[in-house]
Design a protein that fits this description.
By secondary structure, the chain is mainly α. 68% of the residues lie in helices and 0% in strands. It has a single domain, classed as Globin-like, CATH 1.10.490. The radius of gyration is 15 Å and the shape is globular. It comes from Paenibacillus eucommiae. Keywords: Heme, Iron, Metal-binding, Transport.
Length: 130
């Protein structure tokens, strides 16, 4: 496979598609619900949040546009404005994702690329000072 062919493979495909992403989201929310900084931001019934997260991440990483097909344009910053997101919470969110990635993705460079992409998004959501 040459460099051009590798670049056309989406992150979604590189990480293992739907089964891998589902596993990542499951593990991620286990970490989130155990995190004292984050758990209060989420409803007691976390399953609908997990489904939306999986749909969004599928398309965010280059898979089918599941989230958009069901809910329209993501507008994720606007959808998160009602939640007080501080830099500390963005850091905690990324730490939980980092743990889940370590548990699901063996390729270190792929994990780093995914986390780098998510970091941009996480810090874009910050809407409140500490």
């Amino acid at each position: 496979m040459n460099k051009m062919e590798i670049e056309r493979i989406t992150l979604f495909e590189q990480m293992g598609g739907t089964p891998a992403l589902h596993n990542l989201v499951e593990l991620f929310y286990q970490h989130v619900l155990a995190d004292p900084i984050l758990k209060s931001l989420f409803p007691p019934d976390i399953k609908p949040v997990m489904i939306k997260q999986e749909q969004f991440l599928t398309q965010f990483f280059g898979g089918p546009p599941l989230y958009t097909n069901e809910y329209g344009h993501p507008r994720m910053r606007a959808r998160h404005l009602s939640f007080p997101i501080t830099r500390e919470r963005a850091d905690a969110w990324l730490a939980c994702m980092h743990k889940a990635l370590q548990e699901t993705i063996q390729d270190v460079s792929l994990r780093e690329e995914i986390l780098e992409r998510l970091s941009i998004t996480a810090y874009f959501f910050v809407n409140k000072e500490e």
